[in-house]
Amino acid sequence: MNKPLLDVLDHQPRIPPPIWLMRQAGRYLPEYRFVREKADDFLKLCFTPKLAAEVTLQPVRRFGFDAAILFSDILVVPHALGQPVQFTVGEGPQLDPIADRRGLQALKVELDHGVLAPVYETIAMVKAALPAHVALLGFCGAPWTVASYMIAGRGTPDQEPARLFAYGDPAGFTGLIDRLVEASASYLIRQLQAGVDAVQIFDTWAGILPGDELTRWCIEPTQRIIAQVRRHIPGARVIGFPRGVGTGLLRYVEDVPIDAVGLDWTVDLVFVRDQIQWRVPVQGNLDPLVLVAGGDALDRAIDRILEVFSEGPFIFNLGHGILPQTPLAHVERMLARVRGPRS
Ligand code: CP3
User: Fold this and answer.
1) Calpha distance 21→335 (Å, rounded)
2) What phi and psi values does residue 142 have, to the nearest 5 degrees?
3) pLDDT of the residue at 184
4) Helices 170-194 and 143-152: crossing angle, nearest 10°?
5) pLDDT value for 343
6) CB atoms within 10 A of CB 305
7) Nearest-atom index, ligand 1, CA of 321
8) Which of 148, 231, 264, 315 makes the best surface tag, with the fewest CB within 10 Å?
9) Are 150 and 83 in contact (CB under 8 A)?
């Protein structure tokens, strides 16, 4: 049975476009909150295959999305490199920040796949339960984004600690990026071997890098990950999401051999159609806040995206993760509008 999302990754337009949402398993869903409370610890939820598989499947069951995305987090990679991560409710992730070379040297050289074994088991469980037309996506964070959390030890508004580290000790920072390239490639290879149909590389913080640093810390490391993955798994399908890069998008899609590019909600749709979509399928890019707002603004935003992108290969998605305060009725309204006749 064919999967519409994989058709689009193979450059075949589909009408209506396949649809899934970044962070589609999450706090806006009552059934997620129920499981999350039972698991009490977020990482325990990620590393308990039965529960992780259940929350992965919840949004597909409720809304009939065209893809399921593995329930996990980009920060399980530092965790499996020996930098423990904690998630505190209301505070987001917390890690012991890496302040200097000594912090770097304390990391494991290789990813501990024993720690990540439950993730691979989750993939197998989800795979067995998914309807045949629904694609299963794996993912990792891009090295720059993951490094920025490892250095700051938490979320920050502009990743100042990582930028300072990279300018102050480029050789040390290169060592960290190299380690993350190896770790991310081997993590994605295992996910693909366990059964995901494609993987997405989240570079949430790509957009705060100046042009040369975008090349050095985002584009080149992502190229290397993809080359390694495809050495092991020829034809492996990869979606890139360099959030916030603006016109840097052009360089990203020219230089990184991806099967689709995720668009944040700020990019100009016509620029993307004319300059990007004929090279590579696009995915996105509804503003998560317009989905919270609903009403006419939501309908108009959906129509505009469909109007501009529908002639080429296109996956409907948000421009970043769905927000916890999103009303379920707005998600239903969006699905009906994307899939049904427009009014
Ligand atoms: O449904 C899915 O998309 C799959 C699961 C998924 C999560 N995180 C679950 C999660 C995915 C793909 C991610 C990616 C992720 N994690 C990114 C990249 C994409 C993005 O959103 O920018 C980043 C930067 C992280 C790091 C992270 N994880 C932060 C900053 C936070 C705290 C902020 C928040 O939303 O709470 C998390 C926690 C997290 N990851 C939650 C979920 C469902 C919420 C935790 C909870 O349920 O208590």
Assistant:
1) 11
2) -70, 155
3) 98
4) 120
5) 45
6) 23
7) 21
8) 231
9) yes
* Ligand 1 centroid to residue 288 C-alpha, Å: 14
Distance 53 CA to ligand 1 centre (A): 16
The identity of residue 102, as a single letter, is R
Distance CA 208, CA 214 (A): 9
Instruction: Indicate the top mutation candidate among 61, 73, 245 to test ligand 1's pocket, ranked by most ligand atoms within 8 A of CB.
Output: 73
State the sign of the Cα–Cα–Cα–Cα dihedral 23, 27, 30, 34: positive
Residue 149 designated active-site:
yes
Rounded to whole angstroms, the Cα distance separating 161 from 340 reads 47
> Tell me: the pLDDT tens digits for 130-183?
999 999 999 999 999 999 999 999 999 999 999 999 999 999 999 999 999 999
Alpha helices in the chain (DSSP H): 4-9, 30-39, 42-46, 49-63, 76-80, 101-105, 113-129, 143-152, 160-168, 170-194, 211-213, 220-232, 248-255, 269-275, 288-293, 295-309, 328-339
- Identify whether 36 is a catalytic site residue: yes
Which residue out of 23, 163, 237, 337 is catalytically annotated?
A: 23
Does the C-beta of 58 come closer than 6 Å to ligand 1? Answer: no
DSSP states along 123-152:
HHHHHHHS-TT-EEEEEEE-HHHHHHHHHH
C-alpha pair distances (Å), 212 with each of 72, 217, 220, 251: 31, 9, 11, 11
